[in-house]
Amino acid sequence: MLGEGIIKGMLETAKNFAGSFVSADRLTTVEYPEQRIPTAENARVFPFLVYDGAGWEAGLRCVACQICEKECPPKCIYIEKSKDKKPDFVGKMQIYPVRFDIDISVCMSCQICVEVCPFEAIKMDTQFELATDDRFGGLLMDRQQLAKSNEYYHSIHPAEAAEVDARLAQEKTAAEAKAKAAAEAAAAKAAADAAKAAAAKPETPAAGGN
Amino acid sequence: MAAASISVTLDQIFVLLRDWLVHFLPAALRPFASVVLGVVAIVAVFPGLFALTTVFERKGLGRMQNRLGPNRVGPFGFFQPIADGIKSLTKEDVIPFRADAAVHFLAPLVLVVAVFMGFAVLPVGRNMVLVDMDAGLLFFFAMGASTELSVFMAGWSSRNKYSILGAMRAVGQMISYEVPLLLSSVAVVMITGSLSLTKIVAAQNQYTGIFPHWYVFTPWGFAAFLMFAIAATAETNRTPFDLPEGESELVAGYFTEYSGFKFALFFLGEYLGMFSISGLGATLFFGGWSAPLSFLNVIPSWIWFFAKVMAAIFVFIWMRGTLPRLRQDQLMNFAWKFVLPFTLLDLMVTALWRFMGEGWARWVVCTAILAGAYVLMGRTAMQQKKFGPRSYRYAE
Lengths: 210, 396
Prior knowledge:
The complex is a heterodimer of chains A (about 210) and B (about 400). Chain A has helices spanning about 5-20, 55-60, 65-70, 110-115, 145, 150-155, 160-200; strands spanning about 45-50, 75-80, 85, 95, 95-105, 120-125, 140, 145-150. By secondary structure, chain A is of the alpha+beta class. Among the domains of chain A are: about 45-155, Alpha-Beta Plaits (2-Layer Sandwich), CATH 3.30.70; about 160-190. Chain B is an all-alpha fold and about 400 residues long. Chain B has helices at about 1-10, 15-20, 30-65, 80-90, 100-120, 135-155, 160-190, 195-205, 220-235, 245-250, 260-285, 300-320, 330-355, 360-380, and strands at about 205-210, 210. In chain B, a hairpin with a 2-residue loop joins strand 1 (about 205-210) and strand 2. The interface of A and B includes residues 3, 10, 20, 28 and 29 of A.
């Protein structure tokens, strides 16, 4: 009969109307500033720089190699290299960035900088509440604003951070083993040289070099 | 006895208040002042109701879609209309460069004035009618029809394709549904024998036992009410008949080119139109300000009137939350092939009812005719035509 469908539809909306007051699971709304859904583990917004240890300036992993700056599609990264060097996590002397700016109004969150970084120094952040009334200065993040601790990295991307830590530890032990081996080799060589020198000394004229 | 007198005082409180305020003035000014007070009351109450309705509508629609609706401004979001008002007042008032500035400016004013005029003849409570006109119903419909003028003024003067399309749709739709709207109320006039809205209410304000003599409880009245409700929904451009302002295809229809406070005026006019047509529907079929059961007469009459209006508004919102928009051809088909013939039939049935005299026979006959006609017309006239696959003459 004419109008049957309308009545059926009206009953459905009436059910929704009444039901939404009774059962809370009908309402899917998350009232955002007060209630939040935790961000997904693979969420990514803008990049940040990871540092180890307590001091952000001393612990920055970035060695200012500028690969990310060159790879960045919208060219939102600006890096200035330092003149001096500081030791990195394996103790090797490296230059570091005296300026590292990311213009997040330009950044397109593509994560290419993260992919290309050989030092695990730049990672994606999940912080999205970055609205500001200063659209130039407020959206230009400098080195200090970008620096976040490794603990923070663990807190936002636990699995990925653990993997990175394992890799870095492996690299470090490899580097240490290599350094040890090198040191041993050098010591052995030095000892051998010394022995050779000692042995060779009496017959100096005969020495033609090794 | 004391309780009864309190109830009477409460019932007449606004009338007494008006008389008390007026008696400070010299006798010559009194009639004029009491009219002005009545106008002020109407102009204050209905826009206030409009503000409340917008927030209730948004919350109710939200609930129907399992959302929360606005709940940020003030307690439970009830200050939302204040925020909306401030927003619309502070927005830039843009008049298109090529628009006809004078007509463009006048259109919202004409709408609001015409809609407000309709309230003049609506009996809001016992002895609470601004102008007790003998041809009240006629006056109401004359004012209701002149809103079409403002709609077309708005659409035509904007020089915008969306506006003109919206206005054309609106005028086509409003004129098509004006006919069944009038004819369905003519049934009431036939039974009451008067065009005066106060007399129509008085005729329904009688009780058999505890049950009222509302026209909606008669077969012809129920049919007329259904047709009236359909036509009223179309007249006020509400879903499912909101083609003139279909957001998805026409931006905002005839008021696309309006911004700021003029837009708010259109919005106000639309809601006031809803209130007035709901008030008229309540007056014609639901006994106006009379109580639904005889012993409930202790509650003031104006409360009943507003309760009926708000119930009608709730149904409007409920329909908006449920039904999708019709197509223009479906709309016209429905108006001319179903609603109009059915109202004409209802007029004949009303005449039959009038002349069959008291007794159960007229109940059976009238109900049978109307129900049979409804089913048959629904089957045949509203049959969905099965169109084959669409064929294109040129573009293939």
